Every structure is written in structure tokens, then in C-alpha cells.
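Re: duplicated header lines in exported C-alpha cells

Our pipeline writes sequence and C-alpha cells for each protein into one text file. With two proteins the header for the second block appears twice in some exports. Here is an export where it did not happen, for reference. First protein block:
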Amino acid sequence: MKAIRLGLDHLPSLAILFDAYRVWYGADSDVNAAEQFLRRRLEADESVIYGVLQGEDLVAFAQLYPSFSSVSIASIWVLNDLFVVEDQRGTGCGRLLMEAAATHARTTGAIRLELATAHDNGRAQRLYEGLGYVLDEDFRHYSLSI
């Protein structure tokens, strides 16, 4: 089992997983919209997506978005999405994707990798903390719905 960088050729199976990820976070299912969203990100080179294949089946993915730190005057990556199908959780897929994301950030010269997760997602929090991620206790993050 290993993490590989995904591209447009993986889009049909990736869209199904991406849709399941969105549903897990409370969105309505829409595989077509998920596929179009991912297509736009990949075609515009606006995201990097890694996946884990089990045989021919895509069982997990992580999506990264490039960003910047104004204070540090440097590049960062935002690990915005991470999803593992339920029957593969606990098998190391998430860890593989997190390692691939960190390697990608390092090789592109980024100074850090950031992520957020739901307050009640204890399993993911344990994974992140086990890999050395530190909970931000200095800043409050806010969001404005538009």
C-alpha cells in the first residue's frame, strides 16, 4: 500500500470518494458537482491530490491547496481534505497520506503544512497529534459565510 499523486485519469473514482467526504461533513450528495469541482482544481493546477489504492480501488485521498504566510514571507500548504473509506480506517491509509502531504510540502519549499478538523473528530486528531501536529492555541480562526 502506498500513496500516489492523483490526476484527471483518477477523477471518476476520486469524485465518488470526494462526495462521500462531503456527505460525512453534512453536505448533500452530488457526485457530478464533486467531479466538476475537482476537475476545475486539477486543470487549473489549484490543488494537489494524493490517494491510496487497494488493488484497483481508490480507498483514501488527501487534497492540498497552496497558500502563503505573509509574516514569514514563505509558501505553505493547506491540507484541506482527508478521507478514508470506513472499512479501511485504522489500516494506515491516513498516515500514508499525511506523510505524502508532508513530503510534498517539504519538496516544494513550504515552511509548514496546516489543517483543520471537526472538534468531534477524535480519530483524526489522534493521527495528527501522533505525527507531530500541534493544536493552535494562539489564534482564533473565524469564518464568514457569503
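Second protein block, exported in the same file:
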Amino acid sequence: MPTGRVKWFSLEKGFGFIANDEGEDVYLAASSLPAGTTTVKPGTKLEFSVADSRKGPQAMSVHIVDAPPSLAENSRVNPDDLAAMIEDTIKILDRVGNGLRHGRHPAGPEAERLGRVLRGIASQLEA
């Protein structure tokens, strides 16, 4: 299996690129990340298979080989900032709840974004 390191990855955009060991850029979709992984940091070493797509090579079946140490996991967000994030999330959840009452489920990208926000808040609370 080819290996490479993450060049960049955007959680908001849902994709990034890997520089494989041959120097070629490989597209990395968030959906190709291992289960339970929502983002990867630049420099993370990955093992993956490659599929040709209309936009060029795309990483599939991605496995994290070596992740750089995370400073963010060892620090907490300022309590006032976390409180503001939770209050904003409550507003979003209220809007989603009202939509559900009217039979409207959140669209795929909106649901995924909300899931990432909730997991991020949960990780801050558990830190």
C-alpha cells in the first residue's frame, strides 16, 4: 500500500491532500478517513490505497500510521469561549429540532457538520 504525509486537511471543507512518497498529490476526502476520525493534522503519516477519479488520484481505505503529537488534546478551551460555543450549538440544535417537528431532517452536509461540532464540544468537556 502507498504511504504519504498529510499536506493539509480542512474539516470545514471535508477534504485535503496527501503528498505520497513518490511526490504526487493525492486527494483525501473526509469520508475516506478511518471510522471515528474526523480530521487529520498536517504531517500525519498515512497508509492508503489509490483510486483514479475524474480529478486525479484519490486516497481510499486510509489508515493512520503515525500521528504527530497533539498539543490541542492536552489543553482546554477557555471556559467562557466553551460556554459561548455551547450556547451557539444550542441555537443550532433548536433549529434542527424545529425542522424535525415539521418532518425535515437535516441535509447530509449539515448533519455531518453538526456531528463534528458536537464531537468537538464533547472532547473539550472530556479533556
